[in-house]
């Protein structure tokens, strides 16, 4: 893929910064969640695994997309091609599922605080299930990934492609994964955080009426509602455009 010099320089800086921030930021997050004594939040196990998923994405997604754009090649060795493709899909699926788990966990913690204290240890089976589900859903394309040599502009390029013999099967797989990793998680996060925001907003502070205390409580509620809204919007902005673009491409053949 030929790009003008200015665009190459811009993308080089952009992808370099993105890769550096992604890898270093998630490594620091893992250290804090794993070793930090002051980090005692109930969702620490979820955040730790989310950071691991995002770290895998930072290592096996951005650098190789960068190589693909500039050299029109991706993982020329068959084993490496399979590994990179698998880990890219795995990290995306795990990150999406983990975000949903965090949303559901927070909703249960707020609606059923006493029961939640008894069942906090259930986060481990949930996380294990997410790992297994992510691994299983990412393994399907492994049977169709292969190396192919193509000639473009008089130069030979080695590309890593997903070669499905039956295009309808690929069409179904993409739609199922789009629903499971984008549309359904986005809907679940929207519903869970909407219920959570509504519950927190309507909750009345116990005790006699106190204007200063009630004003502080209202401000705190507004901050929480804004935060929940931002989480849902950012999830949609990060996931939906890519998913919709992929669906448009397969519909166009």
From TrEMBL:
Q: What compartments host this protein?
A: Membrane
Single GO molecular-function term? neuropeptide receptor activity
| TM region(s), chain numbering | 12-34, 46-70, 90-114, 126-147, 172-196, 228-250
Q: Which UniProt keywords apply?
A: G-protein coupled receptor, Membrane, Receptor, Transducer, Transmembrane, Transmembrane helix
Q: Does the keyword S-adenosyl-L-methionine apply?
A: no
* Gene Ontology CC, one term: plasma membrane
Residue intervals of the G-protein coupled receptors family 1 profile domain: 25-253
SUPFAM superfamilies per UniProt: Family A G protein-coupled receptor-like
Pfam families recorded = 7tm_1
Tell me the membrane topology, using the record's own terms.
Multi-pass membrane protein
Spell out the protein name for this chain: Tachykinin-like peptides receptor 86C isoform X2
Organism of origin: Octopus sinensis (East Asian common octopus)
